[in-house]
Each structure stands twice: as structure tokens, then as C-alpha cells.
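quick one, 385 residues, struct below
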Amino acid sequence: MKSRERVLTALAHQEPDRVPIDLGGTAVSTIAIPTYAALRRHLGLPEKPVQTLEFVQQVAAVDEDVMDRFGLDVIPVFANPPDRYQPVFVEEPGGARSFKDEFGATLRRPKDSFYYDWRAFPLREPAMDDLARMPWPDPADPGRFRGLRARVAALRASTDRALFGMAPCGHDLLNQLFRVRGMEEGMMDLLANEEFAVAFLDRLTDTICTAQSLFLKEVGDLIDVHFTADDLAGQSGPLISPALYQRLVKPRWARIIQAIKAHTQAKIFYHSCGALDAFIPDLIEIGVDVLNPVQVSAAGMDSARLKQKYGKNLAFWGGGCDTQQVLSRGTPDEVRLEVRRRIRDLAPGGGFVFNPVHNIQPLVPPANVATLFAAALEFGRYPIT
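---
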């Protein structure tokens, strides 16, 4: 069975020849740049410059030789950079580096850090006038889509791997509110400054719907899975109450997903970390097909329970190995046993694409990464026993 057929069969809740495997198919299912360089050395592959898939997280684009070695089934498809925005990097004393994103927020990466993080926020107060003046991405910037269809059509013709679409202009509602206000202030806005929060979320929803529609008008018939994301939960429970989510966030996400489905038959992939159980029925109701990253170490996220409770209506993309303890701190034997357990929990009947929980982080031993994907190939053959 070819990769694209394998992925689509699994996402249709049927059993393909083996569990599909993803590394590098999305910006939330890949590997940190230094870990990837170490992995290539561990595998005895030729040294080459590591290409960046997404530079805020500093994660790698996976090369064809690694894709072939691990039997990977998914390739990402991004829009182009816009014409009217380009990050301007500032080298700070002490070796830190910073830039402003399209919303005017400042991201900074200290010299000894692996990542960029949001450190200064463009809206200090929940003021309507300030919101009106704030820099804002142009979802229709022509640079984003110039030559996009021809590029993706050529890619689809050249590979049998599934194509995973990622539209421009952000993918988050709550997260983006926190990135322009700061997390504490954004949380308070939802409760105490609702008029401002609603105005921001409505403007952002309009922007995301436009960006999604324009992207999918170009490539909606060429992609197989499509990305959405918004973190709703932490390690032990929801970030906001389910009632607040249902009143302020869910209707806007329903509108975004409706805009997506108007232009593609691709499966809707939704990324949220954390203890997500309270929100899963809402996600299914608004049209989410696939859940990622399936943080099996978070409260209420046991893999066998999730499969039993939601497996008829939702496919799982991730959850293949606990990255907080086992992949990062365990032995290769412990990684192998963990992969076998999660595949046994999540793979029967289809509805599962193998990936560990979120991106593989810096300092994860390359032997553990190699074992992870070897075990996925070993234990992922159907029928699962």
C-alpha cells in the first residue's frame, strides 16, 4: 500500500497494511534541529545543513533519506512568505536574537536557548482604539499564493506521500489573544473585558477564514489533511472553563472549520496539547476529524480510554510515545515497550497515525529516536496483536 492510501485509509477508520508514520509532516510533529543533526549522525547518513521547517520552534525539515529509512508517510505544504512582511532580526548584547511577528509582538531567543518565545506584547491595555491601530497580517497578501498551486501540483505528482496543508496568518484564537496581550492579561480579558476580547476574536476569525479560503482555493483539492490548532488545556486540566469555551471560542472555531470545508475534502486536523478530554465532544461536533498530539501523560488522556471513548468519531495523530518521560529520559528498551503499548491502544480498527507527543525536543538521545520509529514499523503491522 502506498503512503497516501495508507494515511487516508487510517483516517477513514479502516485498517491499512500498517500504521502510517509521521515525522516532519507538520510543524507540530517534527524534531528539533540539534536533535535531527544528531540523529543523522547516529544513522550514519551524510552530514548536510539542516533545513528549518518552522523557525520559532527551531524545528527541522526532514530529508528524503530519513523519510525512506523510517517509512514516513506525510509531507507538509505551506503557503509562501508574504510580500509585505519580512522578519527583521535584532542581534542583542549577550547573543540574544529578537524580531517582531506580523502582529507586532516581539519574540526573543536567548543565546543559550533552543527556541524563540513571545516576550513583549503589542497591546498593553484592552483598548479598542489600540486594537484598531495594531499591526495586522494581510491574509490576501499576493506573495502568499504566488505560484502555490503549481508548486503543490508538482509535489503531488512527484510523490505518493500524503500532503498536509498549513495555511498562513496563524491558526489559533486563544493563543493569538495571549500573544498580543500576554497570557495573564488575555485570560483576564475573557472574563473582565469581554467586549474587547470579542472584538479581537472576531477580527482574528475573519482573518483566519479569509486566509484559509484563499489557501484552499489554490490547493484544497491537492491536499489530504489540513491543519488547525488552539491550545485549550494544560497538564492537569483546561486553561479556560468549558462553558467559557462554548460561549466565546467554539462558535468562532465552528465558523473557521465551515470555511475550510467549503473548499476542501481534506481531513481536519486539530492540535491542542494538554488534558483535553472536556473539549473533545465539542471538537467532534464542530467537524474536527483528527486530534493531535494526544498528550498521553496529561490528566484524563490515557490512550486506551481515549480510543474506547472517541475512536469511532475521531482519529488520533500522535500519542505514540510519552515524550515527557519515556522518550526523553528512558532507555531504548523502554521506548520500544512504550511504542508497543500505545500502538496496541490506538491502532486497532484504524484511526491512528503514529507520531510521538508533539515535536521531538532538544537533548533527546538519538538512539531513542531511532528506536521509536523502528518500533513503529515493527509493531504497527496489521492486524495488531
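The chain has a mean pLDDT of 97.
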